[in-house]
Specification:
The complex is a heterotetramer of chains A (571), B (180), C (520) and D (119). By secondary structure, chain B is mainly α. Helix content of chain B is 71%, strand content 0%. Chain B has helices spanning 4-22, 26-46, 50-75, 90-106, 125-138, 143-151, 153-173. In chain C, strands 1-2 form a two-stranded antiparallel ribbon. Chain D is mainly alpha-helical and 119 residues long. Chain D has a single domain (2-118), classed as Helix Hairpins, CATH 1.10.287. In chain D, helix 2 (9-27) runs antiparallel to helix 3 and helix 3 packs antiparallel against helix 4 (73-104). Classes of the chains: A mainly alpha (571), B mainly alpha (180), C mainly alpha (520), D mainly alpha (119). The interface between B and C is large, with 42 and 56 residues. Chain A: GO terms for molecular function: oxidoreductase activity. Chain A: Residues 132-422 form the NADH:quinone oxidoreductase/Mrp antiporter transmembrane domain. Chain A: The chain crosses the membrane at residues 6-24, 36-56, 81-103, 115-133, 168-190, 210-235, 279-300, 379-399, 411-432, 530-549. Chain A: This is Complex I subunit 5 family protein.
C-alpha cells in the first residue's frame, strides 16, 4: 500500500463543511440555499469518487493534520474501506438532497435552513468518520456526527421529538464515553491508535484481558450508533425526524458509521485474527444474531411504517456486525457488501415512506389499503427494495446474504446460518403486509386486522393525532411561492390531496376524508414531485444493480481488496 | 517555662473568646471581644513582639471595635446590655471539637515554646541573616521594620493594596462614590 | 540581578503593579470624565495582557524560568522573588486576556468608578498569586483578589448579592486562613517561605513528619475552599448567581482557576512529587475529593432551574477534573489540568457572558425562559451552544483536549476508576447542557407556532432573524444584546474551538515546565 | 502527651481559639458575631506565628550589630501584614452587613433567609 499525501480526504470533509456556512449564509433565499447543497453534494461525491481508482490500485491518500496529543495524530486517510463508505454516503447525499427539497417544501416545514445546514454538517462528519486514520480521529468525528444530527432528530420541536433528541444524544454520548475509554486502553496497550490493515501490531500480544475490555468498550460504544441491542432503542424513537433524515442518516450515514467503525475495530485495530484469538468475535456475532431476530420480531408488530423500517434497520445492521464477528473471508465480504446493499435498499424504502407521507399524510400501514393505486411507482419501488431486504435473488440483499451464509457454514457456525435464513422469513413477514396493503387491499374504511395486530383490529380512532403534526400552512406567501415553483407537476394535478394542502388552509381530517373516498388512481408520472420520485427511482435501480451485477459496481472490488488486506488471503 | 502573667493572659483570652461565642447580645459580645483584643495585644508584648502588640492594640482593639460599634449603631437598636447566652448547637460544637482535636494532634510535633535555634527550625538562616545583616543592608535598627520595608517590601506593598481594596470595596458595597 | 532587571524581569513585576497603580486612577480622577473608569480598566488590562503575553512567549519559547528578585534582595537574603515558569505564564496570560475581554464586553454597561478600581485590583491580585515565588506573599495576593471579588459580587447593591458576598467572604477568609496556618506549619518545620527553598527543606524535615503533613493538609483544605471543591463549594453557587452578570463571567473564569493554579504550584513546586510518593494516602484523598466533585457538581447542576446557578455547579464539577489532573502527578494529566484550567476559563467565562447578554436583552434567567433564544439572538445563541458543547467536552473543542489529557494521565497511572469518572463526566455534563440547548433551539418562545412556521417555513419565507421572521412577536422582544458582549462571547466560542486543535502544541510548549515540576 | 502539650501551651490555646472562632462562624446566626468569630479564628493564627518567634531569654530584634539573643523577626512581620489584612476584611464584611441590614432590616442570617424565601 502506497501512502500519498493528498488534500483530497480533507476536501471530502471540508466541502460539506463549507456547505454548512454557505447554507446558513443564504438563509432566506431557499433556491440559492438548495443550490449550495446540490453543488456541495456533487463536488463531494466527485472528490470521493476520484479516490476510487487509487484505492483500487492500493494507493492510500493521506492528509496529515498534525498531532493531537502524544501518540494521537489527527489525520485523514482514504483507504479502501474509507472510500467504500465515503462513496456510498457521497452518492446517496446527492440523491437525498433532491429528495429533501421535495419533502421539506412539500410539507412546508419550518426551520429549513437549520435542517439543510445540519444535514451538510452530518455529511461532513460522516466523511470524517469514513476517512479517519486512527481511533481518536474517528472518535472526534463520531462525536461531531452525534452533535450534527441532533438538530435533525429534534427538528420537529414537538415534545416527542425533543425527547427523541435527548435520548439520542445521551445514548450516543454514552457510547462516546465507552469509545474514549476503549481508545485510551488501546493507546496504553500499543502506543498508537492508527488503523493498520490486519490489526495494530502489539495489540494482539498485549494483556488479553485488557484487550478484551477495550474491544468490548469500543464495540459497545460504536454499537450504540449501530443500534446493537440493547442499545438500539434510540433509533425507532429517532424516526420522528423528517423522512430524508431517516433515509440517509438512519439508514446510511449515522447507523452505518457505527457499523463502519465496528468494521474498523475488527479489521484495522485488532485484526480479524486477533479478534478470533481473543475469543470476542463469536460473542459479538451472537449479540448480533440475537439483535437480528428480536428486532425482526418487534418489526412485525409495528404499525407505523417508519418505525417498522427502523426495526428492520436494527435487524439488518446486525447482519453486518454478525459477519464481522465471524473469522472467515466470505463472512467479511458479505458483511461489508451488506453496507452498500442495505443502504440502497433501505434508503429506497424510507424514500417511499416519506413520499407517501408527503402526498397522503399516511404513516400507518393499517391506513395504506390500496395506496398502490395512488402511488404506483413509489410502492413498486418499495416492493422491489423490500424483496431485496428479504434476500430475493437478483436483488442486492441476496448477494451479501449469500456470502454471509457461505461464510458461516465454512466455519461450521450453522447456528448463525440458520439465524440468517430465519431472518429472511421474518423479513417477508414484516414487509409483505405493506405490499399486500398497497396493492391487494381496498381503502376499506374498516380495515381488516393485520397479521401483526393484537386481536381486535386497528385502533383506528386513536390515529387522528398523527395528522395533527403535519399541519402545513396554506395561504402564506411561502406557500404561494411554493406553488409557482412546482407548477410543472402541480399544473396537471386535479384538485386532489396535494393541491389541497398547498392551496387551502383547512387540513383537519385530511387523510381521513381521502380514505373514505378511496385512493384516487394516479399514473406514475403524476403521483408526486420528481424531486422525490427521481431519488426513489435512482435508489431502487441501485439496489437492483447491486444484485444483478455486483461485479460491475465498484463496491465489490473494494471489499475484496479490504478483506484480502485484512485477512492476508486472496479471494 | 510559662510565667504567671502569660498564664493569666492566656486564661483571660480563652475566657473572653468563649464569652464572645456564648453571648447572645451583639453589643456585649463586641465589648468582650474588645477586651479579648486588648489581652492579645498585651500578650504580644509579653511574647517580645512590641511592634505586633502596638498594632494589635491600635488596629485590633481600637479600629476593629470602632468598626463593630459603628456597624451596630447603624443596624440595631441599642437596648442596653444583656447577659443571656446562645443555645449551644451540639453538632456544630462537636465538629469544632473534632477540628480542635485534629489540630492538637500536630501540636506535640511543634517545637516547644521558647525553643531557640537548633530545636526550632524557624530560627534558620533567613532569620539569622535578618538579625545579622539588616542594619548593614538598610541602616534600620529595628529588624522588624527593616524586613517590613526592605526585604519583604513587596508584602507591604500588597498590604497597602489590601487596605486600598477594602476601602474601595466598602465604598462600592455601600454604593458611595468617592466624592459624594 | 539588578542589571538585567530592566528586561523581562520587569514584566513580571509590572503585570501585578500596573493594574494596582491603575486602580487608583478611577478613584482619583473618576470625577473628571465618565470615560476615566472604563478607559483605565481597558488600558490597564490591555497592558497587563501584553505583558503577560511577553512573559508567556519568553518562558514558553526557551523553557526557562524568569526569576525576579524584588528590591535586589534574593531569597537567600530573605527577600521575595517572583518566579514565572510555563505554567504560571499561561495562567497570567489567561488573566490578562480574560480581564481585557470582560472589560470590552462590559463597555455598554457603565458603572461606578469604584467598580473599575476593584476590577483592576482583582486581576492584579490574581496575577500576583501566579507570579509570586513566596508562600506568604501568595497569601497576601490571595486576600487582595479575595477582597476585590467579594466587593465586586456585591457591587450592584442588591441584598441578595450582599448576603452571598458576605458568605463568600467568610468562607473565603476561613480558606485563606487555613492556607496561612499551612504556611505557618511549613515555616516552623523549615524556616523558609520561599518556594524554591522550601522544597528541599521540607524534604529534609521528612515528608512523613506530622508538621509537613499538617502543612499540606491546611494548604490543600484552604485552597479547596477557594477552588470550591465539593463539599466546601457552598459559597460559590450563591456568589456566582447573585453577582452582576459580567462580574460572574470574570470571577468564574479566573478566581477558582487561580486557586487551582496555586494548589498545583504548592503541590508540585513546594511539596513535590516525592511528598506524595511518601504519603500515598494524601494523593488518594485528594483524588477522591476531586472525583466526588466531578460527579456531585454535575448532579447538583442538573437540579438547577436558574442558568447561572446551573453553570456555577458545573464549575464545581469541572474544577474537580482539574484537581484530578493535578493530583495524578502524571505528565499528560498535568498538561490536561493546565489545558482544562485555561479552556474552562474561556468556556465558562464565555457562557456567563452569554447569560449576561441574554439577561440584558431579554431579561431571561431561568432554563425555562431560554425558549427559542436561538431565533431571537442567533449569534449569541450559536456561540453559547458551541461553548456549551465545549463544556461537555465534545471534540475537537478545548474542553475535550483537557479531558483527554487528564484521561491519558489516569490511564498511565492505571487509575481505572478515575478514567471511568473522567470519561463519564461527558454524559454527566450533557445532562444539564442538553436542557439548555433544547430550550434555546427546539422550543418556541411564543405559543404562535404557526406564525413562525409561516415566517421560516417554506421557500420564500425562510429567514431566521429577518424582518419577516420577527413578525407577530411583541415589540419588546426586538431588543438585542449589546454588540460588544456578543462579539466577546463569539470570540470565546471561536477560541474554544481553535484551542481544541492546539492540544499537542500546548503539550510541547509545557513539556519543559511539566518535566521540571514532576521530576524535582 | 499531656506533658508535650503543656510545654506547648500557646499552641494549645491556638487550637482552642481556632475551634471557638470556627464555632461562632458556623453556628451564630448574627452576622456581626460571625465576623467576630472570623477575627477570633485569625487571631488564633497570629498566636501560632508569634509563638514560633519566641525564644527563651530573647529580646525584640532591635540591633545594629547582630550580637545577642533575639526573637525571630520574620513572623512578626508576617503578622503585622496579617493584622492589616484582617481588619480590611472586617471592614468590608461589616459594610456588607450594613448593606444587608438596609435591605432586609436584620443582621440575623435566619431572619434574612426567611425574608428572601418569602420573596
Amino acid at each position: 500500500m502506497d501512502s500519498v499525501a493528498s488534500l483530497r480526504p480533507l476536501l471530502a470533509v471540508s466541502l460539506p463543511a463549507m456547505a454548512v456556512l454557505l447554507v446558513l449564509a443564504s438563509r432566506g433565499r431557499p433556491n440559492l440555499r438548495e443550490g449550495w447543497t446540490f453543488l456541495a453534494a456533487i463536488a463531494t461525491f466527485l472528490t470521493v469518487a476520484s479516490m476510487v481508482p487509487g484505492a483500487l490500485s492500493e494507493t492510500v491518500y493521506v492528509t496529515d493534520l498534525g498531532t493531537y496529543a502524544t501518540g494521537l495524530e489527527f489525520a485523514l486517510r482514504a483507504d479502501p474501506l474509507g472510500v467504500l463508505f465515503g462513496t456510498l454516503a457521497g452518492f446517496l447525499w446527492i440523491v437525498t438532497s433532491s429528495y429533501s427539497v421535495g419533502y421539506m417544501r412539500g410539507l412546508n416545514e419550518h426551520d429549513q435552513t437549520r435542517y439543510f445546514a445540519a444535514f451538510a454538517a452530518s455529511i461532513a462528519t460522516a466523511m470524517g468518520v469514513a476517512f479517519a486514520a486512527n481511533l481518536l480521529t474517528l472518535f472526534v468525528f463520531y462525536e461531531l456526527l452525534s452533535v450534527a444530527t441532533y438538530p435533525l432528530v429534534a427538528h420537529d420541536e414537538s415534545e416527542e421529538a425533543i425527547w427523541a433528541g435527548r435520548k439520542y444524544l445521551i445514548y450516543t454520548f454514552g457510547g462516546g464515553v465507552a469509545i474514549l475509554a476503549g481508545t485510551l486502553i488501546v493507546l496504553s496497550l500499543s502506543g498508537t491508535t492508527a488503523f493498520t490493515p490486519g490489526g495494530i501490531a502489539g495489540l494482539a500480544t498485549s494483556d488479553p484481558t485488557l484487550a478484551r475490555v477495550a474491544f468490548a468498550l469500543l464495540v459497545a460504544g460504536f454499537g450504540v450508533k449501530a443500534a446493537l441491542m440493547p442499545f438500539h432503542s434510540w433509533l425507532p424513537d429517532a424516526m420522528v425526524a423528517p423522512t430524508p433524515v431517516s433515509a440517509l442518516l438512519h439508514a446510511v450515514a449515522v447507523v452505518k458509521s457505527g457499523v463502519f467503525a465496528i468494521a474498523r475495530v475488527v479489521l484495522d485495530v485488532f485484526g480479524p485474527e486477533a479478534v478470533a484469538d481473543l475469543g470476542v468475535g463469536i460473542p459479538l456475532a451472537a449479540v448480533a444474531a440475537v439483535t437480528l431476530l428480536v428486532a425482526s420480531v418487534i418489526a412485525l408488530r409495528q404499525d407505523h411504517l417508519k418505525r417498522r423500517l427502523a426495526y428492520s434497520t436494527v435487524s439488518q445492521l446486525s447482519y453486518i456486525v454478525l459477519g464481522l464477528g465471524l473469522f472467515h473471508e466470505y463472512a467479511l465480504v458479505g458483511a461489508l457488501l451488506h453496507i452498500p446493499a442495505h443502504a440502497f435498499m433501505k434508503i429506497t424504502l424510507f424514500f417511499c415512506a416519506g413520499a407517501v407521507h408527503v402526498e397522503t399524510h399516511t404513516d400507518y400501514i393499517s391506513e395504506m389499503g390500496g395506496i398502490g393505486r395512488r402511488m404506483p411507482l413509489t410502492m413498486g419501488a418499495f416492493t422491489v427494495a423490500a424483496a431485496g431486504m428479504a434476500g430475493m435473488p437478483l436483488l442486492a440483499g441476496f448477494v451479501s446474504k449469500w456470502f454471509l451464509v457461505v461464510g458461516s457454514v465454512s466455519i461450521d457456525a450453522y447456528a448463525f446460518a440458520a439465524v440468517l435464513l430465519l431472518s429472511g422469513i421474518l423479513n417477508i413477514g414484516y414487509y409483505w403486509p405493506v405490499v399486500s396493503q398497497a396493492f391487494f387491499e381496498g381503502a376499506d374504511p374498516d380495515p381488516k386486522p393485520l397479521l401483526e395486530y393484537p386481536a381486535g383490529g386497528s385502533p383506528r380512532g386513536g390515529r387522528a393525532g398523527s395528522e395533527a403534526r403535519a399541519v402545513p400552512n396554506g395561504g402564506s406567501p411561502a406557500a404561494d411561492f411554493y406553488a409557482r415553483e412546482d407548477d410543472r407537476t402541480d399544473a396537471e394535478e386535479p384538485a386532489g390531496s396535494h393541491g389541497a394542502h398547498t392551496e387551502t388552509g383547512d387540513h383537519g381530517g385530511h387523510a381521513a376524508t381521502d380514505h373514505a373516498a378511496g385512493w384516487e388512481r394516479r399514473s406514475p408520472l403524476t403521483e408526486s414531485t420528481w424531486f422525490m420520485l427521481g431519488p426513489i427511482v435512482v435508489a431502487a435501480v441501485g439496489a437492483v444493480a447491486l444484485g444483478l451485477v455486483p461485479d460491475r459496481l465498484v463496491f465489490l472490488d473494494l471489499i475484496q481488496l479490504i478483506v484480502e488486506n485484512a485477512m492476508g488471503v486472496s479471494l | 517555662m510559662i510565667t504567671p502573667i502569660e498564664a493569666g493572659l492566656l486564661v483571660f483570652i480563652v475566657a473572653t473568646a468563649v464569652m464572645t461565642a456564648l453571648l447572645r447580645d451583639v453589643l456585649a459580645a463586641i465589648i468582650v471581644f474588645g477586651g479579648y483584643s486588648l489581652g492579645m495585644a498585651i500578650l504580644w508584648i509579653v511574647l517580645q513582639a512590641p511592634d505586633v502588640g502596638l498594632t494589635e492594640a491600635a488596629v485590633g482593639a481600637g479600629v476593629m471595635t470602632v468598626l463593630f460599634l459603628a456597624t451596630i449603631a447603624r443596624t440595631t437598636r441599642l437596648t442596653g446590655l444583656e447577659a443571656t447566652t446562645v443555645d449551644v448547637n451540639l453538632p456544630a460544637a462537636a465538629l469544632c471539637v473534632v477540628f480542635v482535636l485534629a489540630v492538637l494532634t500536630t501540636v506535640p510535633a511543634l517545637p516547644a515554646v521558647g525553643a531557640g535555634p537548633g530545636e526550632n527550625p524557624a530560627f534558620g538562616e533567613i532569620s539569622e541573616y535578618y538579625v545579622e545583616e539588616a542594619y548593614d543592608d538598610t541602616h534600620v535598627e529595628n529588624v522588624v521594620t527593616a524586613v517590613l520595608v526592605a526585604y519583604r517590601g513587596f508584602d507591604t506593598f500588597g498590604e497597602a493594596t489590601v487596605v486600598f481594596a477594602a476601602g474601595v470595596g466598602v465604598l462600592a458595597v455601600l454604593r458611595r462614590g468617592v466624592f459624594e | 540581578m539588578i542589571e538585567p532587571a530592566v528586561g523581562i524581569e520587569l514584566a513580571s513585576i509590572l503585570v501585578v503593579v500596573v493594574p494596582i497603580l491603575a486602580a487608583v486612577i478611577p478613584i482619583a480622577f473618576g470625577r473628571l470624565s465618565e470615560w476615566v473608569g472604563v478607559g483605565t480598566a481597558l488600558a490597564a488590562t490591555a497592558v497587563q495582557a501584553v505583558l503577560a503575553g511577553v512573559l508567556a512567549w519568553t518562558t514558553l519559547s526557551d523553557g526557562e524560568e524568569i526569576v525576579t528578585e524584588i528590591g535586589g534582595y534574593g531569597p537567600s537574603q530573605g527577600g521575595i522573588a517572583l518566579v514565572v515558569d510555563g505554567m504560571s505564564a499561561l495562567v497570567v496570560a489567561l488573566i490578562g486576556v480574560a480581564g481585557l475581554a470582560v472589560a470590552v464586553a462590559s463597555l455598554d454597561d457603565r458603572r461606578r468608578d469604584t467598580f473599575y478600581s476593584l476590577y483592576l485590583l482583582l486581576v492584579a491580585g490574581l496575577a500576583g498569586v501566579c507570579v509570586t515565588g513566596d508562600v506568604f506573599n501568595l497569601y497576601v495576593f490571595l486576600e487582595i483578589s479575595g477582597l476585590a471579588a467579594y466587593a465586586l459580587i456585591a457591587s450592584d447593591g442588591t441584598g441578595r448579592s450582599a448576603l452571598a458576598a458576605l458568605k463568600y467572604l467568610i468562607m473565603g477568609t476561613v480558606g485563606a486562613s487555613l492556607y496561612l496556618i499551612g504556611v505557618g506549619y511549613a515555616y516552623v518545620s523549615t524556616g523558609y517561605l520561599n518556594m524554591r527553598d522550601l522544597a528541599p527543606a521540607l524534604a529534609e524535615a521528612g515528608y512523613t513528619d506530622p508538621l509537613v503533613l499538617a502543612a499540606f493538609a491546611f494548604v490543600a483544605a484552604g485552597l479547596a475552599i477557594k477552588i470550591a471543591l465539593f463539599p466546601v463549594h457552598t459559597w460559590q453557587p450563591d456568589a456566582y448567581t447573585t453577582a452582576p452578570d459580567r462580574v460572574t463571567a470574570l470571577i468564574a473564569a479566573l478566581v477558582s482557576t487561580t486557586a487551582a493554579y496555586a494548589l498545583a504550584r504548592l503541590s508540585l513546586t513546594v511539596f513535590t512529587v516525592e511528598f506524595f510518593a511518601a504519603n500515598p494516602v494524601v494523593q488518594q484523598v485528594l483524588l477522591a475529593v476531586a472525583a466526588t466533585s466531578v460527579v456531585a457538581g454535575s448532579l447538583l447542576a442538573v437540579l438547577q432551574s436558574r442558568v447561572k446557578r446551573m453553570l456555577a455547579y458545573s464549575s464545581v464539577s469541572q474544577f474537580g477534573l482539574v484537581v484530578v489532573g493535578i493530583a495524578l502527578l502524571e505528565g499528560p494529566a498535568l498538561v490536561g489540568a493546565v489545558v482544562h484550567l485555561i479552556g474552562h476559563a474561556i468556556v465558562k467565562g464565555g457562557l456567563f457572558l452569554g447569560v449576561a447578554a441574554f439577561a440584558g436583552a431579554y431579561g431571561v434567567t431561568t432554563v425555562e425562559e431560554y425558549d427559542g433564544l436561538g431565533e431571537r439572538a442567533p449569534y449569541a445563541s450559536a456561540a453559547f451552544a458551541v461553548l456549551a458543547l465545549a463544556l461537555v467536552g465534545v471534540p475537537p473543542t478545548v474542553g475535550f483536549v483537557g479531558k483527554l489529557y487528564v484521561a491519558i494521565g489516569a490511564v498511565e497511572a492505571g487509575a481505572w476508576p478515575l478514567v471511568a469518572v473522567i470519561v463519564a463526566s461527558t454524559v454527566l455534563t450533557l445532562g444539564y447542557v442538553l436542557r439548555l440547548l433544547e430550550r434555546i433551539y427546539f422550543t418556541d418562545p411564543a405559543p404562535d407556532r404557526a406564525a413562525r412556521a409561516a415566517a421560516d417555513g417554506g421557500p420564500g419565507g425562510g429567514s431566521e432573524g429577518g424582518p419577516v421572521g420577527l413578525s407577530g412577536r411583541p415589540v419588546s422582544r426586538r431588543r438585542s444584546a449589546g454588540r460588544a458582549i456578543v462579539a466577546v462571547t463569539v470570540a470565546a466560542a471561536i477560541a474554544a474551538v481553535v484551542l481544541g486543535f492546539a492540544g499537542a502544541g500546548i503539550e510541547s510548549l509545557l513539556e519543559p515546565t511539566v518535566s521540571t515540576l514532576l521530576d524535582n | 502527651m499531656i506533658e508535650a502539650l503543656f510545654a506547648r501551651y500557646n499552641y494549645v490555646v491556638f487550637a482552642l481559639l481556632l475551634g471557638i472562632g470556627l464555632y461562632i462562624v458556623i453556628d451564630d446566626e448574627n452576622l456581626v458575631k460571625k465576623v467576630i468569630g472570623l477575627n477570633v479564628f485569625q487571631t488564633g493564627i497570629f498566636l501560632f506565628f508569634i509563638t514560633v518567634a519566641v525564644q527563651d531569654g530573647a529580646e525584640p530584634a532591635v540591633t545594629s550589630t547582630g550580637e545577642g539573643t533575639f526573637v525571630n523577626p520574620l513572623p512578626h512581620v508576617l503578622i503585622l501584614t496579617a493584622i492589616v489584612v484582617g481588619v480590611s476584611l472586617t471592614a468590608l464584611a461589616l459594610a456588607l452587613v450594613v448593606r444587608i441590614h438596609e435591605e432586609y432590616g436584620s443582621i440575623r442570617e435566619d431572619v434574612v433567609v426567611e425574608v428572601l424565601e418569602r420573596d
